[in-house]
């Protein structure tokens, strides 16, 4: 699997336009650290939605890269 270059503006536009299928496709090509960085930059409500688009195994790996504050926000947003 070849990793794509991280493009925050492009990913943010997809999230804001609720193009979640395309966003998911782009995110699955990124490494977990870049996805975590992207989630950290999003407003809380968007980060939860974007996190939920990730496949379960990838979401688990991304979660480990997130700071505890963002982890808590995602947990609270999911439950």
What is this structure, in a nutshell?
This protein is an all-alpha fold and 79 residues long. The chain has helices at 8-16, 20-27, 32-41, 44-53, 56-65, 68-78.
How would you describe this protein?
The N and C termini lie far apart (33 Å). The protein is built from 6 helices and no strands. It is mostly helical and 79 residues long. Helix content is 73%, strand content 0%.
Order of helices and strands: HHHHHH
Number of helices: 6
Helix content: over 70%
| Poorly predicted runs | none
Terminal Cα span: 33 Å
What does the largest sheet look like?
Answer: none
User: What number is the mean pLDDT?
Assistant: 90
Note the overall shape: globular
The structural class is mainly alpha
What fraction strand?
under 5%
**Strand count:** 0
Output the radius of gyration.
11 Å
Would you spell out the secondary-structure blueprint of this structure?
Blueprint: H1 8-16, H2 20-27, H3 32-41, H4 44-53, H5 56-65, H6 68-78
């Amino acid at each position: 699997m070849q990793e794509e270059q991280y493009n925050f503006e492009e990913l943010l536009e997809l999230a804001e336009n609720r193009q979640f299928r395309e966003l998911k496709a782009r995110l699955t090509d990124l490494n977990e650290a870049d996805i975590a960085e992207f989630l950290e930059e999003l407003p809380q409500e968007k980060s939860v939605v974007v996190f939920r688009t990730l496949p379960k195994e990838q979401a688990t790996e991304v979660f480990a890269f997130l700071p505890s504050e963002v982890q808590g926000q995602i947990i609270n947003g999911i439950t």
